[in-house]
Amino acid sequence: MALLEIRDLHVSFATRDGIVHAVDGVSLSVDRGRTLGVVGESGSGKSVTALTVMGLTRLPNATVEGHVLLDGVDLLALPGDELRRVRGKRVAMIFQDPLSSLHPLYKIGWQIEEAIRAHERVSEKAARARALEALTEVGIPSPGDRLSSYPHELSGGMRQRVMIAMALVLDPEILIADEPTTALDVTVQAQILDLMRALQAEHGTAVVLITHDLGVIAETADEVAVMYAGRVAELGALVGVLDAPEHPYTWGLLQSLPSADASREQPLHPIEGTPPSLIAVPSGCPFHPRCPYVMAVCPREEPALLPTRPGHTVACHLPVPTRRRIGAAVRAPNARA
Amino acid sequence: MLRYVVRRIVWGAFLLVVVSALTFVIFTVFPSADPAALRAGRQATPELIAQIRHNLGLDKPLYTQYWLFLKGIVLHFDLGYSYQNSVSVESQIFTRLPVTLSLTAGAFVIWMVVAIPIGVISAIRRRSLLDRATMGAALVAISAPVYFLGLIALFLFSNDIGVVHLLPGAGSYTPFSVSPWRWFTALLMPWCVLAAAFAAFYARMVRGNLIDTMGEDYIRTARAKGLSERRVVARHGLRAALTPVVTMAGLDIGILLGGAILTETVFNIPGIGRYAYDSIINSDLPAIEGTVLFGAFFIIAANIFVDILYAFLDPRVRY
Predict the structure, then answer these.
(1) Domain range enclosing A4
(2) Are A125 and A241 contained in the same domain?
(3) What is the pLDDT of residue B68?
(4) Using the beta-carbon criterion (under 8 Å), do B220 and A86 form an inter-chain contact?
(5) Candidate from A80, A87, A150 with C-beta closest to B315
(6) E strand or H helix at A107
(7) What tens digit of pLDDT does each residue of A276-329 get?
(8) Are residues A119 and A254 both part of a single domain?
(9) Of A171, A198, A223, which residue constitutes the final position of a domain?
(10) Are residues A211 and A329 in the same domain?
(11) Cα dihedral sign, B70-B72-B75-B76
């Protein structure tokens, strides 16, 4: 059994405009030391899935169904205070914007120590020592001084390192990273990803990496889940999904990437249309209004997520040979060295 | 930081001069009763009025009058003598300061003790019955003028004209040094009346700020750390939500120290506000100037204090 297993998760929110079906039947899993990349546009349900694992969608207007199994224990069934003991201790999370995610009025050292003392009875001194150790481990220069810095005194990359230090200080089994590099400069992005990879290798942490950036996925993930409209469109090993993609939405994502070796005149190919409203999700396959290969069956029936080869599943009505042919053609011009 | 403070103090002193000039101009330009005639009493001879006018210096040109007044303040910290009874304005204000201070401090404690819990609870239990009820009541309290609320309170609870003879009524102020208990009971009604509108306003402000703060990313981080919800609200939410409230409170205290005119008048409390009211009725220019300057001083001082305090409350603020 996988370390973390999400089974048939449904999350919806009652809002003034109607019911938002943010996550609709998602099943995913990740194992120790592995990285699951979750990719999709805004509103594809990737962040809500992550927040639900943390129990952060337990809101009065939210309905959550399904299972989130951590070592076989269903987190969704845990009472609030038991879930609280898992949060931060066994499953930690880092967020997109490290400036707004750190409390602006408290010192960094205090914020890390608070994370330790939320779960362990340790002396102030011991907590401080571990906070210092954590800052050292994430490569912050002169970590002793930084303990008494405020978040606004650090650069964006340093702040994200602080977030990582705070998340990993209790050595959690799972780290959920929700767009951890989106708000950072490109050069800093690479450093943060390298750091996460190094820490993962050292601690054997399972990582769920949520991003809209296929480049980040290609560099870090072992498995990839492509999400669309709160569902998984394609799921498989990194090599399978990126080199032999079989879902029209994945093709669209790959084609919309600029490539360094393509000539400047070669236009980019954005996916036509906009992501669907999660209040009125299109019937059948939710991607059909934007799909260039749409068939008569697509608006009528929702395609099931079916295996196309070992460890690679796709939710699409197109015949497998057609998918393979187009997928190979899509991949060719963009193939990575 | 020090340079900033010095600059602010110089600017504040300049503002006080402007305020005094404006008060003087308003008093002399706009029609008001003749102070000399008021002082001379009924059936005074024109000679007596002229004599009084000369004694008070009212026959000198206006700019000379103002110059002498300003010189007195700057050189001797002397606010002049009341036209009405020749008592030094300064001594009048300083005798009345403890009264206004008592009124302000008590009201402040009441409004904060009421506003913060109500604000916090209605922010957390948003749209609950309690939230709706308290916020509705707050709207009523904000809209009710002090003189109306004060008269209602006197009519209901004072031990002379009240329906229920519960508390001492108007004009019963006793200094703390004479009798702490009578001081307390006499001020209880004015405190509550003065605090009502502030409590309502602050409850709404705490609620609004806390609701905004609880939607911040760092609150999500605090929850993700596995902190208890109580700690998330108290240490992370309130810490950020109360910073602007503290600022606001500093300014309001400054304003009230200059005299809560309506409350002191309704309850006939011998504070600075009551003195200001009386001096306006009597066209007593030195006393008007004195109370206005005193009020302006507290407001300016509170502003400077709050700006400095803010740098301590929010590390992002630098001067």
Answers:
(1) 1-90+174-260+270-337
(2) no
(3) 84
(4) no
(5) A150
(6) none
(7) 889 999 999 999 999 999 999 999 999 999 999 999 999 999 999 999 999 888
(8) no
(9) A171
(10) yes
(11) negative
Q: Does A115 touch chain B (CB under 8 A)?
A: yes
Q: Does residue A96 lie within any of the structural domains?
A: no
Task: Indicate the pLDDT class of residue A335, thresholds 50, 70 and 90.
Answer: very low
For residues A164 and A337, the model is more confident at A164
Same domain? For A187 and A295 the reply is yes
Any domain includes A38: yes
Q: CB–CB of A56 and B315 under 8 A? A: no
pLDDT given for residue A262 in this prediction: 63
Q: Which of A171, A192, A207 is the last residue of a domain?
A: A171
Per-residue pLDDT of B35-50, as tens digits, reads: 777 777 778 788 888 8
**Number of structural domains found in chain A:** 2
- Is the domain of A54 the same as that of A133? no
Interchain pair B315, A152: CB under 8 A: yes
> Does one domain contain both A43 and A190?
yes
Q: What is the mean pLDDT of residues A15-21?
A: 93
Are A163 and A212 part of one and the same domain?
no
Separate counts of helices (H) and strands (E) for chain A: 12, 12
Is the residue at A218 inside a domain?
Answer: yes
CB–CB of A150 and B216 under 8 A? no
Retrieve residue B231's tokens. 């700690």
Closest listed residue to residue B296, CA positions, set B92, B15, B31, B62: B15
The β-bridge partners of A15 are A18
- Whether residue A97 lies inside any domain: the answer is no
Output the pLDDT for position B73: 81
pLDDT at A66: 95
Contact A105 B228 (CB under 8 A): no
Is A77 in the same domain as A226? yes
142-161 in chain A: CB under 8 A from chain B: 150, 152
Read off the CATH number of the domain in which A83 is found: 3.40.50.300
For chain B, say whether A118 makes contact (Cβ under 8 Å).
yes
